[in-house]
Amino acid sequence: MKKLFLLGLALSTLLLCNCAGSGEKCQGNCKCQNGENCQCSQQCNNGENQVVKAIMERRSIRKYLDKPVEHEKLAQIVKCGINAPSGMNKQPWEIRVVESQELINQVNEVYKKANPDILEKDPSFKNMFRNAPNLICVAGEQNSGLDLGLLGENMMLAAQSLGLGTCCLGGPVHFLTNTEEARFFIEKLGFSEGYSLMYILAVGYPDESPDAKPRDEGKVKFIQ
Length: 224
Ligand SMILES: Cc1cc2nc3c(=O)[nH]c(=O)nc-3n(C[C@H](O)[C@H](O)[C@H](O)COP(=O)(O)O)c2cc1C
Description:
The structure is a single chain. Helix content is about 40%, strand content about 10%. The chain is built from nine helices and four strands; from the N terminus they run H-H-H-H-E-H-H-E-H-E-H-H-E. The longest helix has 17 residues, at about 145-160. Bound molecules: flavin mononucleotide (FMN). Flavin mononucleotide (FMN) binds near residues 168 and 171.
């Protein structure tokens, strides 16, 4: 009985102390799972589930502050990504994190040439990656869509929990793979033979907080 109680206590401490929060100091006995100094949000202490919170608050962000994301945060996001499950643990992905503003600018020039009226159409246009300062480019082997999706959502939720915004982008992949002048970008990413670029995550500090788009709960049925 005592053992059960202690196990329960330990589990509830872990649940309450999901520390990817808002930067506030931890209170009481709240400790990060890895023992580091906590940056728990207030909710850490009132029991709100931080994973649910991140899921429900994540939105696709298409306006970003002019501020690159710190390397350590990008590394943490990717680490969370590759801890996603994959069929038979094949991990059929390759990931390239673009921190080079020069590379983004170079390929963006190609995009602007191909779309000369882009600024008229979209006055807030900064770059073809929904204006994000950093990119996480994901390539996969054939038929790896499910695994790649799980990888991506892990990364988007990790980013959300770190106060960052993301947008999963398929549109630019189409442009990059079908435009001769943009080939240098994919070549620079240097994916292995057999891997194709599948999506790009735009990542940055959000400069908007859009409302959730409606979800169709009618698609869910509980069979009891
Ligand atoms: C596979 C995939 C491709 C997407 N491609 C684009 C894109 O090219 N451009 C864009 O602005 N948003 C893109 N999105 C974002 C979706 O439009 C967005 O997730 C959807 O409207 C739901 O909104 P939410 O993410 O804010 O909940 C993509 C999302 C996914 C999952």
